[in-house]
Amino acid sequence: MQVQNRLKGNEMLMTDLLADAGYSNGSNYNFLEQRGITGWIPVFGKYKPEIEGFPYNKEKDEYCCPMSKPLPFKGFHTTLDGTVQKIYRTTTKDCKACPMKSTCVPNKTWRQIIRTIYDEQYLRAYSRQHSKRGKQMKKLRQSTVEPVFGSLTQYYSLRKIGVLGKAGAHKVMLMAAIAFNLKKYLKKGGRKPSCTFFEAIIDTLQRHIFAFYAKPVNHYQFS
Predict the structure, then answer these.
(1) Which comes out higher in pLDDT, residue 6 or 43?
(2) 85 - beta bridge partners?
(3) Which of 2, 81, 110, 190 could form a disulfide with 185 if both were Cys (CB 3.0 to 4.6 A apart)?
(4) In terms of residue numbers, what domain contains 14?
């Protein structure tokens, strides 16, 4: 939201967002869709868009087993970490008389399928990921986003940040980002900035540095 507000303040709109699989979860996909942003975030490897042998009927909101027995939606389940899941389950009667029970559910009385409540968002993200443009966006992310962190740690001495607190770390990363983007801009053939441009950058950096060191120091008295 902060990024969107900053972009709007400069008459810019965010329409697409690139991120790695570490940001792959249903709530993120849903958050972006609600704001009209196309998320190019690869779906986490454990997610399966389909369950082999168990086709899904969207109209009835139920699965069907290989023996043509339904697995209707039974309700929601919330895990210990707050994740909400949808439960689909056969009846004990159907499984008890099934000739495939010994291989399908040998130690249970029914077959159960658990899906995320964000299944539709996952499916759309999965479809985008495997599309032609999705593969292009993956190459773009790998060539422009991911190398930045490696460059900052290897060539900009940011393997560790030598300040205390989030505010100080934020200022360090802000200055590193300015330097990195300016260097990249010039390397890609960008127009050489004017002296006024550099003066504005220096003035901004000075204000951040002065504000950081001007913070009051807490004095502790020990008895």
Answers:
(1) 43
(2) 77, 116
(3) 190
(4) 2-45+123-132
